[in-house]
Amino acid sequence: MESTCIFKTREGICKSIATAQREPLEHTILRALQSGSTAYWSEGRGRRPDVIENIDAALNRAKRGKQVSSGEVLELVKETAKVAKTGLLLIIDELGKNLEYASQYHEASDLYLLQQLAELNFDETQKVYTLGILHEAFAEYAHSLTSTQRNEWQKNSR
Questions:
Q1: What's the N-to-C CA distance of the chain in angstroms?
Q2: Is 98 in contact with 156 (CB distance < 8 Å)?
Q3: Which whole-number Å values give the CA distances from 20 to 27, 44, 77, 120, in the listed order?
Q4: Gap between the Cα atoms of 40 and 64, Å rounded
Q5: SS3 for 59?
Q6: Residue 9, SS3?
Q7: Which of 10, 75, 105, 107 has the highest CB neighbour count under 10 A?
Q8: pLDDT at 4
Q9: CB–CB of 126/50 below 8 Å?
Q10: What distance separates the 2 farthest-apart alpha carbons in the chain?
Q11: CB-based burial of residue 121 (10 Å sphere; 0-12 exposed, 13-18 middle, 19+ buried)?
């Protein structure tokens, strides 16, 4: 049986990695995109694309306490993958910290953003791969939610 590697590209995939904090998922993703895209385009890959400025601007708004929508973050993820032309690997370590924040502040948009990331479907050069690292079962982070909300989390964890 022949195996294939989803990351096999001549230029390498754009790797965006962040360790989560107790913060909205959007903030963690923006930090990952900022560090990953800056590193990716600093390796002689041509002109720095405009998407990096857009990521920086969104992250600065988030740091000042301004809201950054999950839709805007999703568009930045898509645009980063598109301009990289090799795809985007988004890794969130300690994703449970985002889930704890979401359960404490009843942020349903964080779960929906995770679902949207999982459903992204691009052509072969614009793939987005998302890896969230949890140290407990997904539902364990929902202990402060009502039973209805916990059931909704259970649906999203499958």
A1: 28
A2: no
A3: 9, 29, 17, 21
A4: 26
A5: helix
A6: coil
A7: 107
A8: 39
A9: no
A10: 52
A11: exposed
Residues in the chain with pLDDT < 50?
Answer: 1-9
User: What one-character DSSP code corresponds to residue 49?
Assistant: P
> Does residue 36 contact residue 76 with C-beta atoms inside 8 Å?
no
From CA 154, how far away is CA 10, in angstroms rounded?
Answer: 39
Q: Residue 86's closest CA among 136, 16, 19? A: 16
How much is the pLDDT for 6?
A: 43
CA distance 76 to 86: 16
- Give Cα 136 distance to the centre of its chain: 19
Tokens, residue 22:
């107790």
Residues ≥6 apart with Cβ < 8 Å to 8: none
pLDDT of residue 154: 59
3-state secondary structure 83-134: HHCCCEEEEEECHHHHHHHHHHHCCHHHHHHHHHHHHCCCCHHHCEEEEECC
Its pTM stands at 0.82
Question: Which token pair is 41?
Answer: 């385009």
In 3D, which of 1, 43, 39, 35 has the Cα closest to residue 18?
35
